[in-house]
Structures are given as structure tokens and as C-alpha cells.
Amino acid sequence: MNLFSFDKKSNFLQIVVSTVGILSLFFPWIYYPRLDLNIYGHNGDGWLFSMLFSIMLFLSLISLWKKSENYRHVYNMLIFAGSMLILALCIYKVYAFHEAIYNYQNDNPIMNYSGAGARLQWGLYAIAAISFANAFLSSLGMLFSTSKLRWYILSGLLLVGLISLMVYNTNKHKNKLDKVTVEENLNTYFNKMGETLIRKRSDQFVDFVHPILYQSIGGKEKLTQIMSALYADLSITEAKIDKILKTNIQDEAIQALLIQNFTIRKDGQQTETTSKSFAFSYDGGRTWSFAGTENRSFDEMKKILPELSEELRY
């Protein structure tokens, strides 16, 4: 038995990768900011993933000591199938999570409070990457018969990956928006939000609201109903940003504290109101969502939006 053949090396790598996959039980999956609570793999379906990785580890160990190439092909095929199953489940869970957050609707105030702002942690993405690595290793062992050719192919793939990463980093830096463009986008999104208020389109207005706010009250439909009732006997004739007071930038995440101005008409009389609000962008200033302070103090807003930067304190 040649422990230094390509098959054996790929087996060793599969053993390492599968072992890390089993430990994914302790990866964080979901974070609830209002409760400062992490949900880990072992609190949910992580046991299923761990079991599948355990099966793949067992197959890799058997394959390591098998001399027959046919047997190793069968084990690699089984490992590949298991890896693709895990990858598919991860993709589905990420998609289902975002769908559930977007369409959240609940009448339970405790659930609304505790679940507001829930977001995925790195755990599921890491499991997807691990399963992809296992699928790659198992498929590589099945495709090529000449050891030297395998290494040429592997080197080529790694080179392509490295070039792709360099291109991605270059484009990311190149596509970074300047301050003027970021502020223009902020004003554009605020004006779009204001237009929905002027036209009394509450169903469109909620799309500009920070998700944690409409999750806190039970979902988008409930916020739509509240806004429709609020503007039944008054109308907004103008909405604008008076001033951007402060900003906080953390890579692609941008927070801003604004002074906003609304012109309101009620009972034939027109008044202007000025208040503070927060603006949030998670894609470098391309798109924005908003959260009005409603005369709350910063500490009160911090309880609602735990992610608020202390640099925006007012």
C-alpha cells in the first residue's frame, strides 16, 4: 500500500475535512441581537449534518486501507453524494431563513421581541464550504487515472481560484463607492421612502423600514396596517433630509444619523416636523433602510436596534 499516492493523500484530506464537519455541531447558526443569544448546530439540525459527516469519515477511513481501486471509486461516489446532499440542505436552509425573515408574521409579542433582527451566523456557510471541499476531493479521485495529470489539474484549478480571488478583490476595491455617491444614494432612497408616504402607499413604505422594526411588531403586514390607519386623516406633502449628523462605516456596513423633515397637512393646516432617524446600508451605500427615533433617547433606540454604533450617540 502506497501511503503517498494521490488517492491516499485525498483520503487523508477527506478525513480531516469530515472531522471538521462533525465538529460543526458547535458552529453558530443564528444570532438573536435582542437577547444576545447564539443558536448553535447542536440546538437544531446540526445533528443530521454531523451524522452525515461521520458516515463520510467512516467511508474515508475504509477507503484509506482498501487496495482495490474499484472499491475506492464506490466510496468516493458515496462521499460525493453525501457532500452534495449537505450542500443542498445548507443552501435550502439559508434561503428558507431569509424568506422567513422577509415574510415574518406573528401575533405573539414575546416572539416578536425576541426574534426581531435575527440573522445568520457563519456556521451554515462554513458547513457548505466543508461539504463542497469534500465533494471536490472525492470527485477529483474519481476523474483522473494518472497521478501526474491529477496534480496538473489540481494546480490548474488552484491557479484559476487564486486568479479569481485576485480579480474579485480588485473589483471589490474598484467598485467601492465614494462618499459623494454614498450620500446621493442615501438621499435617493430617503426620497423614495418619502414618496411612498406622500402617495400613502404603506405597503411600499415598509420596504424602506429596517427589518428589526417591522419584525418587532409582528411583520410587514401589521406595520402596513398601522401606517394606513395613522395616515388616514393626515397627509405628507414633503419629506427630505435636512442634515447627515454622523456616520459610522465598518467595511460594507454603514450607519448614519440624520435630521429629517416632514411637511404634514391635517384638517386643512400645514405644519413641519423635524426629528432624528437612523439610516442603514449593508452593501457599501448602494441600498438603504431607515428607522425613526420617534423622540426616543439613544439608549432606548439601542435596546430596539442593538447593532447601533456608539459613535452615533445623540
Notes on the protein architecture:
- The protein is α+β, with helices and mostly antiparallel strands and 314 residues long.
- 56% of the residues lie in helices and 18% in strands.
- It contains eleven helices and seven strands.
- The protein has helices spanning 6-22, 46-65, 69-102, 109-115, 123-143, 147-174, 179-198, 202-205, 211-216, 220-230, 298-304; strands at 28-32, 37-40, 119-120, 235-250, 253-266, 269-281, 289-292.
- The strands form two sheets. A four-stranded antiparallel sheet has the order 4-5-6-7, with helices on one face. It has a three-stranded antiparallel sheet with strand order 2-1-3, with no helix packed on it.
- Strand 1 (28-32) and strand 2 (37-40) form a beta hairpin.
- Helix 1 (6-22) runs antiparallel to helix 2 and helix 1 packs antiparallel against helix 5.
- The longest helix is centred in the first third of the chain and has 34 residues, at 69-102.
- The relative contact order is 0.10.
- The mean pLDDT is 86.
